[in-house]
Amino acid sequence: MDPLKEKFYQKSAALKAELKSIVKEHGDKIVDQVTIEQLIGGMRSVKSMIWDTSSLDPEEGIRFRGYNIPQLRELLPRVPNGKEPLPEGLFWLMMTGDLPTTDEVRWLSAEWSRRSGVADFVFDAIKALPKDTHPMTQFSIAILAMQSDSIFAQRYEEGMSKNDYWDAMYEDSMNMIASLPRIAAFIYRRSFHNDQHIAPDPNMDWGGNFAKMLGFDSPDFLALMRLYLTIHTDHEGGNASAHTMHLVGSTLSDAYYSFSAAMNALAGPLHGLANQEVIKWIFEMVEEIGTNSPTKDQIRKYINDTLAEGKVVPGYGHAVLRQPDPRFIAQMRFAKDNIKDDPIVQIVWDLYEIVPEVLGALGKVKNPWPNVDAHSGALLVHYGLTEYNYYTVLFGVSRALGVCAGLCWDRALGLALERPKSITTDWLKKFVAIN
Ligand code: HAX
């Protein structure tokens, strides 16, 4: 057994036994209640699933296995002389609960490189689509195309014991994660660079190699990509992409089916597509105002016009967070350290000054602060990755780490098929009348 699998097995077998006894002794205790507002309002904050890889505090933001983003930037291993953490390290942490050593992370980079082969039929499936098909559609279809290689599906067909589900899910997750940079880079080069593809470098780390296959090799861009792929991995289990992965996986669909579905959730503008919407909105602002250095009054007017048209301000607001997103702050710090005098970055910072005040004045927005998507586009544009309808694919490649770790844990803990109860509006009206 490989070292990560061995450690994962030990940790998860112990927790599985513990959970079983918690259910046996305390199974009837009430954890939460649901109000009608929550029921109609998208189940906000209803405690209803187990997800250990990360947890989200409304005021403090995300913690991965107890570590916040500034701590991870310090503690996770990097490449030699690297400025940012390697996402491999965060995957190890999410899978095991322990910070990895540099050697363990090096092993994982090499292991993903070893597993990164992609069958021709997957590239053929992408090639069958028109080149202007949205990159997220190409990505989701490519992931689904890989499903025929699922080890979980094959072993299930052969009669695998339920005690072995975790093992097959681990294999699928590792293979899928390993292949995503090649697939995502293929989509990018096909859609925007005349099919001029760049071969993978088997000796590089997962994120650095991805950046190179996209066609960028400045050390700062590689550092940005490693940071980006680290901070977008996981945001506890209730967000739409993670919850989709968990739900679809709970039917014993394999990692490919589950992740393709998760990516379809990420592709919505209220979720991951917000990163493309932010930069598109900024570009439209620049065009409408006629300068890339608008005044704060001009920016304020543009925000108010957006709201008057019945649209949301992309990149602002959150279903859980009630403070500026630490993932936004991490990207802002990266920009302050590495980027000088960029007009689009400056607009992002001006928006940070103005939008919260404007949204706050509406009196209904629960969180007027920026989320992760408010900053990422400006950084990518700075380094020349300007094709913004590709951005959610980058988010998706990163999200794979969190949701695959979650899926491995789901199967290792033997979590059940998800099946909440729906009610009709007639039922609700009668309930209200009686109560
Ligand atoms: N601009 C304008 N209005 C906003 C707003 C924004 N950025 N954020 C919330 N509101 C509005 C809501 O539309 C809602 O209005 P109505 O009552 O008229 O329907 C009201 O304020 C209350 O909403 P809320 O309770 O504060 O927010 P929700 O939990 O319902 O929604 C969203 C959270 C993230 C969907 C929301 O803030 C939004 O639409 N933001 C813009 C899109 C965005 O940036 N999405 C990315 C979120 C992070 C993420 O998942 N990244 O992948």
Structure notes:
The protein is built from 20 helices and two strands. It is mainly alpha-helical and 435 residues long. It has a domain of 109 residues: Orthogonal Bundle (Cytochrome p450-Terp, domain 2). A two-stranded antiparallel sheet has the order 1-2. β1 and β2 form a beta hairpin. 45% of the residues are buried. The model has no long low-confidence stretch (mean pLDDT 97). The site of N-hydroxyamidocarboxymethyldethia coenzyme *A has 22 residues, from loops.
- Give the helix tally: 20
The chain-level structural class is mainly alpha
**Would you give the CATH topology of the domain at 274-382?**
Cytochrome p450-Terp, domain 2
Order of helices and strands: HHEEHHHHHHHHHHHHHHHHHH
The CATH architecture of the domain at 274-382 comes to Orthogonal Bundle
The CATH class name of the domain at 274-382 reads Mainly Alpha
Tell me briefly what this model is.
The protein is an all-alpha fold and 435 residues long. The chain is built from 20 helices and 2 strands. The mean pLDDT is 97.
Give the topology.
Elements: H1 3-26, H2 36-40, E1 54-57, E2 61-64, H3 69-75, H4 87-96, H5 102-114, H6 120-127, H7 135-145, H8 151-157, H9 165-192, H10 206-214, H11 219-231, H12 240-249, H13 255-266, H14 274-289, H15 296-308, H16 326-338, H17 343-362, H18 373-382, H19 391-413, H20 425-434
Antiparallel strand pairs: 1-2
The structure holds N-hydroxyamidocarboxymethyldethia coenzyme *A (HAX).
N-hydroxyamidocarboxymethyldethia coenzyme *A binds at residues 239, 270-272, 274, 307, 312-319, 359, 364-367, 371-373.
